[in-house]
Amino acid sequence: MAQDSSLRAVGWARSLPISSGVTAARDWTRKHLVSLGWERTAPDLVDSVVLAVSELVTNAHAHAGTAAQLILTWDEECLHVTVHDASTQLPQQRHADDSALGGRGLLLVDALADGWQVRRCPRGKDVTACFQPPSPTQAT
């Protein structure tokens, strides 16, 4: 019997004006991760994804000064978390000293995600982080 090799994916997208705040992004993301059943199978991963979303949306609002588009795509191997903003300036990891109030967002994303990248777009940029849940044998 031949296996179906077609890509199966599910995705969600939401626009987040600066006035909406980051809480809306976190709550919206958590709701979709619950729909995947991850609050039972990978609760620590849910917390990591939500924290990364918070950092990426905060960066879009604070540094780009624009609305952010948050896109979640689950392709059965990786949850791709993409935040798009209208700035063409690429983010740069900073090395904040211990007394700095900010400057650690991308360091956190780097520590939490299985991988991340930045891509220029015609109208801004996308920052995408990939999160791979534990396999069913690892989760037990």
UniProtKB/TrEMBL annotation:
The keyword Metal-binding does not apply. Residues 24-130 form the Histidine kinase/HSP90-like ATPase domain. It comes from the Bacteria. It holds the Pfam family HATPase_c_2. The keyword ATP-binding applies. One of its GO terms (molecular function) is ATP binding. Keywords: ATP-binding, Kinase, Nucleotide-binding, Serine/threonine-protein kinase, Transferase. Coiled coil: none annotated. This is ATP-binding protein. It comes from Streptomyces carpinensis. The lineage of its organism: Bacteria, Bacillati, Actinomycetota, Actinomycetes, Kitasatosporales.
